[in-house]
Amino acid sequence: MNIGNFFFKYRSYTPIPLAMVIIYNAQYTNAYIVLGLIFIIFGESIRFWAVSHAGGITRTTTVGAAKLCTSGPFAYTRNPLYIGNMLMYNGIVLIAGASNIFSMLMLTWLFFIIQYFLIINLEEQTLTRIFGTAYLDYTKNVPRLFPRLFRWKSDDNRQPMTLLKTLRSEKRTLQNIVIFLIIIYTRYRLLEQ
């Protein structure tokens, strides 16, 4: 298994060491809590929108797709889920606090830049092999990460999943956010004693 496959297959677990560092360094400060919550809500909103269009396929452990998804947020950026994740982790770092919050943010960005560089390269190779010129046309018109200002018009006119189906698909992410915030709050309480 190459390193890109490893990071793709275990992408739900590879951030655990980073999460432990964030929790270990957590120091209560009111300064960034509201900003952190804004980042989490914005990041999860992007994820929610993306999952509503891509469906449960976003939870697979093997790279591939039955159909190329270019609707919803995928018409602005090829990797909205990863953008959402990075925003949410920034929010968690801001809520957790640290003696040097900017170092923690930089560590978080560095981790995700490396992980997503490896995963995105693997995904792009696989999707090019599966969808050929359709995917290459998509890559020419939709940026890898930084979103376009205007939606790219494609033939993908799929309807997003219902709110309930999207919630079911996204429940693990929502549970992880809540668990993370509870652990951070518990850490704050232990530091007070």
How would you describe this protein?
There is one protein chain. This protein is mostly helical and 193 residues long. The chain contains seven helices and no strands. It is elongated, with a radius of gyration of 18 Å. The N and C termini lie far apart (46 Å).
Q: Can I get a quick summary?
A:
The protein has 193 residues and is an all-alpha fold.
Strands, total number: 0
Q: How would you classify the helix and strand content by structural class?
A: mainly alpha
| Name of the level-1 CATH class | Mainly Alpha
Helix content: 55-70%
Low-confidence parts, pLDDT < 50 over ≥5 residues? none
CATH fold assignment: Four Helix Bundle (Hemerythrin (Met), subunit A)
How are the elements arranged and paired?
Layout: H1 3-9, H2 16-24, H3 33-54, H4 80-96, H5 101-131, H6 133-141, H7 163-192
Helix pairs in contact: 1-5, 3-4, 3-7, 4-5, 4-7, 5-6
Index terms:
193 residues, mainly alpha, Four Helix Bundle (Hemerythrin (Met), subunit A), 7 helices, elongated
